[in-house]
């Protein structure tokens, strides 16, 4: 539960800090656990979140925009993927400390 608590200097732990929260979020999206985010990872997560309420073409656009904005790399098979460092950089201007928190 500490992963979701607001960060306070007195309660900083391995998971309850900016880096820990970003790693947690990255692991949520890394469905196949290969330490990179692929189009398939995003598709599976978004499908689980929105189900059939979003048109497949629209979902594809959202996924490709996220991958593009992160500065995705291309592997030897021509597949796009996002590394942890790229993912983390996209969150540079996001207030992860409070946005990834649940008050108890």
Distance between the termini: 10 Å
Average pLDDT confidence is 83
Structure class: mainly alpha
Count of helical stretches: 5
Q: How many strands in all?
A: 3
Based on Cα principal axes, name the global outline.
globular
* Largest sheet, spatial ordering of strands: 1-3-2
- How much is the radius of gyration in Å? 15 Å
Query: How large a portion of the residues is in β-strands, by DSSP E?
Result: 5-15%
Largest sheet: 3 strands, antiparallel
Succession of helices and strands: HEHHEEHH
Fraction of residues in H or I helices: 40-55%
Poorly predicted runs of 5 or more residues: none
Summary tags:
mainly alpha, single chain, 5 helices, three-stranded antiparallel sheet, 3 strands, 104 residues
Produce a short descriptive summary.
The protein contains five helices and three strands. It has 104 residues and is mostly helical.
Give your account of this protein's structure.
It is a single chain. The chain has 104 residues and is mostly helical. 47% of the residues lie in helices and 7% in strands. The chain has 5 helices and 3 strands; from the N terminus they run H-E-H-H-E-E-H-H. It has a 3-stranded antiparallel β-sheet. Strand 2 (73-74) and strand 3 (80-82) form a beta hairpin. The N and C termini lie close together (10 Å).
